[in-house]
TrEMBL record:
It is a multi-pass membrane protein. Coiled coil: none annotated. InterPro entries: Cobalamin_biosynth_CobD/CbiB. Belongs to the CobD/CbiB family. The gene is cobD. PANTHER family: COBALAMIN BIOSYNTHESIS PROTEIN CBIB. It is found in: Cell membrane. This is Cobalamin biosynthesis protein CobD. The lineage of its organism: Bacteria, Bacillati, Actinomycetota, Actinomycetes, Mycobacteriales.
Length: 309
């Protein structure tokens, strides 16, 4: 039975990845959106300007999803496939990147600004075409790890609970993991748990980006050099790795003033070369797609190694 469960994990990951490639995210009634709504309702009861209140909020929200995942895991391959499809966002990420490049190439800044919130939480109203291209590319790099590599690896290690639990952790971080007046303390636990959950996946993403750099005209050595030199400058222990390795692979420069709705941050320079263009954004999408496929292969190997042990 133990071998059968582990084998179903590998098969379910492959099927779920295929579903994401074909169907992308459902535009309505997405389970992640439902979780977000439930977390907002929960926050009305748990919120306080206190770290321990945030710990309680994280424990209840994520713990509930882990419990649901444990029950759903009894569904075998089908449950794993559906959970994988639910947790992944790779196809939608690539599509949004292409759409952004198309709108920027057409000079449609209004349309590009309307699209940006689907990629990241920056304030699009203050960004010009170059700023929008950079914001989209940095989001593609970070979300390649968050939306595909991390859920696949957690699925390989912990099955359905790993897939759904990781998506809950990452969603809560996106909702409350901010350093603003309301969430500086309450969102602390969400941010720290997300950092821990992405520690290994971000570095797997960095390695895959370096290895696959020639697919977009880059060099593995340049990606690794940018990672070693620049990643630690970034305020995030994980985003710095994936953004620096992407910048090195593409031969571009990322970072600089970054405007969010809650305020501005001055991000460190990552990589060497010119600021990114829409052509670089399209290359980043191709890189992201390749890394996602590589992550699936790694996840299948991990699941099979665990099965044999």
């Amino acid at each position: 039975m133990r071998e059968q469960r582990a084998s179903s994990t590998a098969v379910g990951l492959v099927l779920g990845f295929a579903l994401d490639r074909v169907l992308a995210d459902p535009r309505r009634l997405h389970p992640v959106a439902g979780f977000g709504s439930a977390a907002m309702v929960l926050e009305r009861s748990t919120y306080a300007d206190d770290r321990w209140a945030g710990v309680l909020h994280e424990a209840v929200a994520v713990g509930s999803v882990l419990g649901i995942g444990a029950l759903a895991a009894r569904g075998g391959v089908l449950a794993t496939a559906l959970a994988t499809w639910t947790a992944l966002g790779g196809r939608s990420l690539a599509r949004a990147g292409h759409d952004m490049a198309d709108r920027l190439d057409a000079g449609d800044l209004t349309g590009a600004r309307e699209l940006l919130p689907s990629l990241c939480g920056r304030d699009p109203s203050v960004l010009d075409a170059d700023g929008l291209a950079r914001a989209a590319l940095e989001s593609i790099a970070e979300n390649t790890s968050d939306a595909t590599v991390a859920p696949l690896l957690w699925g390989a290690v912990a099955g359905v609970p790993g897939l759904l639990g990781y998506r809950a952790v990452n969603t809560l971080d996106a909702m409350i993991g901010y350093r603003n007046e309301r969430y500086e303390r309450f969102g602390w636990a969400a941010a720290r748990v997300d950092d821990a959950a992405n520690l290994v996946p971000a570095r797997v993403t960095g390695v895959l980006t370096a290895v696959l750099a020639p697919l977009v005209g880059g060099r593995p050595g340049a990606a690794l050099r940018a990672w070693r030199r620049d990643a630690a400058k970034h305020p995030s222990p994980n985003a710095g790795v994936v953004e620096a390795s992407m910048a090195g692979a593409l031969g571009i420069r990322l970072g600089g003033r970054t405007q969010y709705r809650h305020g501005a941050e001055l991000r460190p320079t990552l990589g060497d070369g010119p600021a990114p263009t829409t052509a670089d954004l399209r290359r980043a999408v191709r890189m992201s797609t390749a890394v996602q496929a590589g992550a699936l292969a790694v996840a299948v190997v991990v699941a099979e190694v665990l099965r044999r042990r």
